[in-house]
Q: What sequence folds into this?
């Protein structure tokens, strides 16, 4: 027997979605659509326009913006060689060692977030020439190689927004936050908690970081290995620690609010005032530092009910200077990204994720003539916006009604020879079993009225 034949007899491999990725299926996808539709609507009322940026970009763009030392860039990006380079080298039979030979500019990565891309696009399309500020939002998949768990995936979805322009007016910070809160409110998200902080700027943060480092060195022995390492690499991240044993120590550390320069302190006070005018309820959290390097001044995070340890449903902050760092004009920026997977989870866990993906009408038809009428009826009902299930082959009425029930249809439209020759169609309301005969126009009229109730 040839090798090929042996292979044929083997059981075919059963493929599964890659770890950390998943399929989103109906009826849940209807909830995703509702959430996304609500974002389009709410964000438009705040004057935001949608931007769609590529799924992959130069690795260097992310390294420069998010920071080469951050977890996201140093550990979690899906990175590979640029395509032109790749095919050229494959052609030469030099696949091996290819990645290590490439310079950072030649590498590309799946986007772990989209702020960097939006800033790149702002520069590339000279958006500083548009009326300022430019207000953009986006939604779509992001990729981070994290350890998967509930609410944490390797392909996850964000809905985000960015405001870019010449002004860093505190009212901009407050309005961006107000917009997310309005969105969450519209969706009925439960247990929403907004935390805010200011992490200072280039003038005051370095001094605070040194102060923090010095304080941390004094208690180094009492800290876990991660925090010990961070004393050197990024002392601010120690404040993020969730380790039970470190909490009491962290509570004694110097707080950035006491070390902000005058400009940052004034800005922070004004942001809080602006939130109050808008009726946005917040909690100050001096330990909120965020894990990406581009932030300065305002940072914020929103948590919601039912999410366990991965309870941050939105994170954001100000990033003045990022556009400049990427070679663009001096520009102020602030934005946020919502974890859509977590948002959906929270809505579902608190019973706010109910969606009716049920059919309006199931057409139970029998006989060739009735089939032709059923096809026309389906066309007219669909045109009027009703969701219609039209079985492709004839079924006994009993079976058809059973199917209609299983699909959660509200009505069964019964079309047999009698109905077709009389021109009177039977509509059965499945909830109570009642049956009424209608002419075709009356039936449409009745269904329209019922829908409007
Ligand atoms: P981030 O905090 O890294 O910020 O992510 C924002 C949100 O995305 C998180 O709060 C979380 O809900 C969700 N998220 C992050 N990683 C995962 C994951 N592995 N699985 C599921 N959900 C996840 C940013 O990405 C910034 N670009 C936000 C921003 C925009 N700042 C200014 N403008």
A:
């Amino acid at each position: 027997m040839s090798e090929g034949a042996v292979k044929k007899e083997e059981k075919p491999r059963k493929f599964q979605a890659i770890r950390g990725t998943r399929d989103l299926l109906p009826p849940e996808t209807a909830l995703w659509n509702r959430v996304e539709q609500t974002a389009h609507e709410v964000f438009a009322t705040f004057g935001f326009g949608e931007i769609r940026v590529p799924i992959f970009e130069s690795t260097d763009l992310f390294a420069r913006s998010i920071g080469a030392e951050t977890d996201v860039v140093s550990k979690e990006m899906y990175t590979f060689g640029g395509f032109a380079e790749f095919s050229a080298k494959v052609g030469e039979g030099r696949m091996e060692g290819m990645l290590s030979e490439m310079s950072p500019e030649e590498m590309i990565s799946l986007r772990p977030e989209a702020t960097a891309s939006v800033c790149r696009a702002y520069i590339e399309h000279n958006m500083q020439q548009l009326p300022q500020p430019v207000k953009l939002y986006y939604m779509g998949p992001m990729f981070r190689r994290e350890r998967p768990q509930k609410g944490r995936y390797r392909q996850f979805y964000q809905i985000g927004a960015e405001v870019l322009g010449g002004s860093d007016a505190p009212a901009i910070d407050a309005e961006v936050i107000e917009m997310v809160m309005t969105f969450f409110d519209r969706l009925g998200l439960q247990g929403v908690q907004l935390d805010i902080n200011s992490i200072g700027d280039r003038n005051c943060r370095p001094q605070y970081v040194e102060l923090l480092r010095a304080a941390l060195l004094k208690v180094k022995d009492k800290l876990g290995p991660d925090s010990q390492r961070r004393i050197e690499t990024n002392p601010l991240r120690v404040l993020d620690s969730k380790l039970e044993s470190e909490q009491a120590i962290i509570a004694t550390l110097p707080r950035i609010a006491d070390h902000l320069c005058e400009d940052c302190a004034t800005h922070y006070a004004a942001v809080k005032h602006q939130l109050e005018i808008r009726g946005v309820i917040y909690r100050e959290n001096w330990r909120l530092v965020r894990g990406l390097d581009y932030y300065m001044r305002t940072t914020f995070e929103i948590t919601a009910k039912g999410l366990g340890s991965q309870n941050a449903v939105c994170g954001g902050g100000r990033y003045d200077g990022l556009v400049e760092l990427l070679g663009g004009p001096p520009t102020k920026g602030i934005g946020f990204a919502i974890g859509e997977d977590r948002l959906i989870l929270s809505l579902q866990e608190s019973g706010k994720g109910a969606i009716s993906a049920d059919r309006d009408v199931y057409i139970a038809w029998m006989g060739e003539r009735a089939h032709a009428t059923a096809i026309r009826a389906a066309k007219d009902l669909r045109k009027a916006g009703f969701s219609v299930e039209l079985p492709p082959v004839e079924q006994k009425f009993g079976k058809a009604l059973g199917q209609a029930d299983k699909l959660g249809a509200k009505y069964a439209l019964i079309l047999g020879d009698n109905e077709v020759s009389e021109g009177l169609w039977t509509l059965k309301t499945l909830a109570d079993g009642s049956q009424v005969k209608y002419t075709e126009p009356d039936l449409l009229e009745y269904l329209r009225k019922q829908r409007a109730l």
Notes: Confidence is low (pLDDT under 50) at residues 93-97. The pocket of histidyl-adenosine monophosphate is lined by residues 113, 115, 144, 146, 151-153, 156, 158, 160, 162, 312-317, 319, 335-337, 339, 341-342 (CB under 6 Å). The first helix runs from residue 3 to 9. The two ends are 70 Å apart (CA to CA).
